[in-house]
Amino acid sequence: MASSISSSALLLRPRPPPLLRRAGRLRRSSKPYFTLSPIFASSSSSSTTAPLMKKEREKEKEKEEEVVIVGGGIAGLATALALRRLGVAAAVLEQGASLRSGGTSLTLSTNGWRVLDVLGVADELRAQFLQIQGFCFSIREAIPEIKPKRLVMRSQDGRELRSFRFEDEAPGQEVRAVERRVLLETLAGKLPPNTISFSSRLRSIAWQGKDGTLLELDDGRQVLAKIVIGCDGVNSPIAKWMGFPEPKYVGHCAFRGLGQYPEGQPYESKVNYIYGRGLRAGFVPVSPTKVYWFICFNSQSPGPRTTDPSALKKEALDLVQTWPQELLDIMRNTPDDTVVKTPLVDRWLWPGLSPPPVAAALNGSSSAVAVVVGDAWHPMTPNLGQGACCALEDAVVLAGKLAPALTGSRGAVVAALGEYAQERWARVFPLTARASLVGSLLQWEDPIVCAFRNEVMIPRLVRLGPFLEHTNFECELLEPIASN
């Protein structure tokens, strides 16, 4: 993915100008995570791309937009819908020819459902997906004993390790596994027609001084935007353009799939986790006819990319061929073409070292602004089930900051986005680190350490209430902004 940027449009400076000193401070600390510094670009920009862009604009008329969202995934569609509910129109550029049908299922906890409630789509989704009653932890040879509304963990020799239920230890917790495809279709269905422009792959991005930011697409179309919101996923070209490093591979990969039971699936509504040495798996009912499963395994490298779906499914089955029959049955009931393999990655947003998620080029009262959201900014491993939830949170926080600022000056927009960045960093950095730590602990291979995990850590140290405390996210209602 080619991209270009003027060297004068970078944004990290040691001291903030007065414009931004009120923005960008953590609520819990007086020390800012980063300092935003707008660049006051002259009309005679030194960017080497400017003459080329000018010539190309003469060949093809640009489409001008106030707000452009790059990426039509969960973060992009949720952001567009949140802005829409606040009276702000946004164009969405999606590189695919249609909504993404790839992926299987994702788990949404209480914080994700609170956002979906605010977006007005939660009840429609609740009607399609089962509510999870709790968790069941076991090790490979264990046979979990199920008591009425109680989840029991047993060791290899049959000893009970732990039993709990949401109702007792985490009252009010709402957890459901949701098909990614259905979630995207539901969000998109609430947007006005033609909001999403499909087959719109980004080729390059460049500041255009006071005019905005120029997005050039693979098919030659050009979009000139005042505000660019990068929701373009883990391998985000927008994030790369803003100076973010590539996400880091964490040392394990995951297989995922969706078992299908047209006549009805037989499993209880709980998340089932099974632990081995350097290998773990799990499954959870999604709906009356579908069951989501995963396998996470250690690997020094992501390995070659396999495109043969039957080979992927065979590779996954070979990893757990001696594991509980329930898991194997679910995997065998999974269509080959729905099995996916993903290397797990994350990006730690270290204070003072990571680039800001907001970039601005100012020229008098005009400016171009870019910001990243969701996986484009803070990819995290799925060990806490918070990737999609945090993307949804980002969307409503960003919309709540940005919409009222649009009625003011460009400086107000930059300041509002700085507030978004600081507020969200305080939330996502600890979650990214915690998810990585949990994954490392659960992927242990040493038999002594695994014994400690099975006999001490899980049954005696883990408490469901504190473990799920991160799902307590308060989501404000999105009230339309009155125009002046």
TrEMBL record:
Q: Low complexity compositional bias: what residue ranges?
A: 1-13
Pfam families cross-referenced by the UniProt entry: FAD_binding_3
Domain of life, per the record?
Eukaryota
Sequence segments annotated as region (Disordered):
1-26
Which GO terms of the molecular function aspect are on file?
Answer: FAD binding; monooxygenase activity
Does the keyword Cell cycle belong to this entry?
no
Q: Domain named FAD-binding: which ranges?
A: 66-256, 372-428
Cite the entry's keywords alphabetically: Monooxygenase, Oxidoreductase
Q: Which PANTHER family does the UniProt entry name for this protein?
A: FAD/NAD(P)-BINDING OXIDOREDUCTASE FAMILY PROTEIN (PTHR45934), FAD_NAD(P)-BINDING OXIDOREDUCTASE FAMILY PROTEIN (PTHR45934:SF9)
* Family of the protein in this entry: Belongs to the 3-hydroxybenzoate 6-hydroxylase family.
In Swiss-Prot or TrEMBL terms, this protein is called Uncharacterized protein LOC109715112 isoform X1
Q: Which gene encodes it?
A: LOC109715112
